[in-house]
Amino acid sequence: MEKIRCGWVTKDQIYIDYHDNEWGKPVYDDKKLFEFLILESFQAGLSWLTILKKRENFRKAFDDFEVNKVANFSEDKIEKLVKDEGIIRHRGKINAAIHNAKLFIDIQQEFGSFSTFIWSYVNHHPIINEWNSIKDIPATSQLSDQIAKDLKKRGFKFLGSTTIYAHMQATGMIDDHIKDCHCRSL
């Protein structure tokens, strides 16, 4: 019998693997949280499948998402990234990723970790929603609005409410698996 999955999952194996093994599972590791911030910011205006297919290229291009390295990318490195066909070559998003890396480090220094900071918005426990269908799942929430607003005040770029909501889903701060999905938290 075939497993029931959320309606956004296509038959593409990379999507199935991502859904079954990552999406909605709590992430507390700063490196992984930074990776998802980068990937989600590059996803804006594109499909998540496009990003997943380029994920390994992003990993190489962004030095395995080592935040301290990304924060110190030089102009030469930026020019290499703009020419790298393996990633999304959007200069504004590339510059934002570097800028956001510096602010990510500031948050780590202020709170001890980015994880402590971001998970404090949900009292360090995932929000488990009760959706019957993918149609019920919102693109934003009051909480994603608040986090996006707070990050914007800190100077973050390319991280609006929709991007933050997707980040919360990806990192398990929110479990938006539909009720019938085999991955849903109980």
Characterization of this structure:
The chain is an all-alpha fold. It has a domain of 121 residues: Orthogonal Bundle (Endonuclease III, domain 1), CATH 1.10.340.30. Helix content is 54%, strand content 2%. The chain contains 9 helices and 2 strands, in the order αααααααβααβ. It has a two-stranded parallel sheet with strand order 1-2. α2 crosses α3. The two termini are 21 Å apart. This is DNA-3-methyladenine glycosylase I.
Secondary-structure blueprint of this entry?
Elements: H1 13-21, H2 30-43, H3 48-61, H4 67-71, H5 75-83, H6 91-111, H7 114-119, E1 127-128, H8 142-153, H9 161-170, E2 174-175
Parallel strand pairs: 1-2
Helix pairs in contact: 2-3, 2-6, 2-9, 8-9
Uncertain runs: none
Instruction: Give the biggest beta sheet.
Output: 2 strands, parallel
Helix content percent band: 40-55%
Class by SSE composition: mainly alpha
Number of helices: 9
Q: What's the CATH topology label of the domain at 29-120 and 138-166?
A: Endonuclease III, domain 1
Which H/E pattern describes the elements?
HHHHHHHEHHE
Measure the end-to-end span. 21 Å
Biggest sheet: strands side by side, in what order?
1-2
Strand fraction = under 5%
In CATH, what is the class of the domain at 29-120 and 138-166? Mainly Alpha
Mean pLDDT score:
96
For this structure, what is the CATH homologous superfamily of the domain at 29-120 and 138-166?
A: Hypothetical protein, domain 2
Number of strand elements: 2
CATH architecture classification name of the domain at 29-120 and 138-166: Orthogonal Bundle
Q: Categorize the overall geometry.
A: globular
Radius of gyration: 16 Å
